[in-house]
Amino acid sequence: MKDMKKNILLGITSSIAAYKVYELIRLYKKNNYNVKVILSENALNFVSPLVLETLCENEIYYKQFTPRTNVEHIGLVDWADIFIIAPISANTISKCANGIADNLLCSVFCAFLSTEKPVLFAPAMNTNMWNNPFIKENVEKLKKQNINFIDPQEGFLACGTNGCGRLADINIIYETTLKYLFQNKKNNNKKIIITMGGTKEAIDNVRCITNFSSGKMGRALCKWAYRLGYEVCCISTLPLENETYKTINVSTAQEMLKAVQENDFDYLIMAAAVCDFKVENKSEHKILKENIKNDFELKLTFNPDVIKTIAENKKENQKITGFCLADDDPVNCAKKKLQNKNLDFIVANEIKTALNTDKNKVTIIEKSGKIINIDLDTKDNIAKKILEVVCD
Question: Do 125 and 86 form a contact (C-beta atoms < 8 A)?
Answer without folding.
Answer: no
